[in-house]
Amino acid sequence: ASGYVEPPQLEGNAITQTLGFGGSAQDYALRIHEDLTLNHTVGRSKFLESAVNDRERELIPAIEREIKSAI
Known about the structure:
This protein is of the alpha+beta class and 71 residues long. Helix content is 45%, strand content 17%. It is built from 3 helices and 4 strands. The protein is extended.
């Protein structure tokens, strides 16, 4: 699997976190993610981006709750 999640980082008064796909399979992952003309037998192009965008209304409040409970 080429997926990864880096630990949260505090940058000034903002908390950032990086997640994605790549690593040793970066060239492959980039093509699979960005090429919207490919026929996928399982999944789809931009599946990570789409999943976040599709659930944004639920994710933002959930992330806010987790941050507030941690500080």
